[in-house]
Model the fold of this input.
Amino acid sequence: MNREVESSKESVLPQKIGHYIVKELIGKGGMGEVYLCYDPITEREVALKRIRPEMHAIPLIRQRFLKEAKIAAQLTHPAILGVYSIEENETDVFYIMPYIQGKTLKTLLAGYRQSKASTIHLVRDFLTICHAVQYAHSKGVLHRDLKPENILIGPFNEVLIYDFGLAEYADMNEESFDEMPVLKSHPDLTRVGKIVGTITYMAPERILEKLDTVQSDIYSLGVILYQILTLKHPFKRQSVKQFKQQAQEEKIFDPSDVAPMREIPPLLAKIAMRCLFFKKEQRYQNLKEMISDLEQYFEGKADWVFAARLDPKNPTDWELQETIVLKQSKDWAIYMLSSTLFPGNVKLESHITLEKGSEGVGFLLGVAHKMEQKGLDSGLTVWIAPNQVRLLRAGIVLKTIETPQIQEDLGLEIEIEKLYESIHLKIDKKSVLVVPIFLPVTGAHVGLVYKDLQFRMKTFSISVGSYNARIGCLTIPDTFFANGLFEKALEEYNKISHSFERRSEGLIATFRSGLTLLELNRIDEAFEAFEKLHKTQKGILEWLGKGLSYRKLLEVGEEAKCYEIALNLFKNDMNLILIEEEILFRLEQSKEEGRVGPFLFALIALKYHLLSKDNSTIQELTKTLLTPPFLDPEEPESLIAFYLMKTKSLEALGKSEALEVVENLYRKTDPVVTRFYHWLETIENSPTSAFPSLSELLKKTGKKVRTIPLQQYLPLELALLQKL
Done:
């Protein structure tokens, strides 16, 4: 520790404190003093803090000093100045800390006021501070005196918070009190009601209500960030009395207005202002939320700019208002598309109340101009219903989340962000759904879809993402792609792939170049593009891309293999949901292409527990199959594997008789196969089957009576046809 070496010429320094050799007095406060010492045992320099000699005999001072030391000792974080040891005897109390040569943030900011240089690089140090305070909060500790003079920045960019002299445990009750040995042993130090801290960094509730909360520390951090951005204080406070008299009149101006000549990113200004709301309920409710916004800035993600406010009752806001039939449920619904296009990153915000009996409201993003799908499927829907959220693509449910917080007759603040690689849903500021998306969204309309009018919508506003270096580079080719300008899109994607080789945005650009080549029907080149993703951080996209390529070639079996390979190779990959959702999407969509596809994807969904055997789609498929005597109709995975002649699956499921039939289908001498044929000859047609049953195949052996194309038969059925 080093408080900028405040050398003192007062009195003669003690030669030793304990076994530590005193070298210099480096700091002095109201209660304690800090020395630079040499520890002959460890042979290193340390900072030693002890009670000032004239206050040593005061019991309350001694107790408070020990409390500060013990709280700091319990917080082991790289950005919190640690405590090596605490030593106490009848004549002295002191504790030992690391000695760091550096400057406080206060001194650094004073230097920047002189030079007028940019301070944006200090925001990364500020993020480190936030992480440290978040850690302290996780341990139940409020700092209560966060300010630039209590933040030390070392010569090697060490960032450290110190001085926990005013720290306190948050949310104390009788039970938690017993769990905190520091407070249990010093009960008189925990009196509620005393205003402590530095007034220019204090949250209003600390002064007006004598209330310390997590939001109070967040307020102090907001003041620090405001100073980093503007090099000015957000307000002028002279005393507690003056603040109490003028609290309601205190105004805080946007950092960009206060320091228009300085480099102040709008997102950072917004973060600082949110920390400084007068009412604590309007601030960040925890540091996790604040850190998330700060990291969004460092990751180069877009800030949001208000674009439009749409009114469901105003016809001019909507290009399309039609009644449609929903794909899976076959229900009628009202479908509305905005008259304005919103390409790139989009955020939808709405306040809705679902009334009794409501089936919910769907928010549409990235929908193409025409309702029919062209090329790669597009159009995303986030459906908000009582106790449930569903994510749909092209009308097909990809994900369902049980959400008890969505109740009838309860107003809900809905916030949906569609970023270049994810969908993020928040309800009442709490994150509910985060789903990665790497397939480019080919439309730019937003909209609404609903089955009934049992809801109220107060607001529906749209914001678009501002461009920046990282997001902008993908937005440009994505816009070309969305407008069908595939050659231009391909050229831009290839430039980004080359410029950001092996980096996330470069790999995503490589993947999307492969998708663009598929649109151009250059399928061999698409395979080559996806191959470049092999053994990279986005390796899962290789198999998604190859699956889409086989889909373009109408080779559904190879497509399914690609997705199953990905499920096995990337079990712990956070983006595995991409493959899972594609399987569920294809399970529904492939019904329009033939009969084999749905069964292939259903088998994978069952095998990898993406769907339960009670799922309506699984039951719908298995109803078209007759169950042989050696299989259980309540085990759809085995039944589907049998009809698909998947020997490995049957073996893994322990279905030995079914496996023997598949492997020896043409050997009439095999007893199990013989019994199977005997069963075929005796069963009746299935009245629920949309296709000829196996017994019908035996009766209709002539080619002239076959009215269904061969590709509509499952492998087992085809094998029987070939035999017959």
User: Anything to note?
Assistant: The CA atoms of residues 200 and 237 lie 6 Å apart.
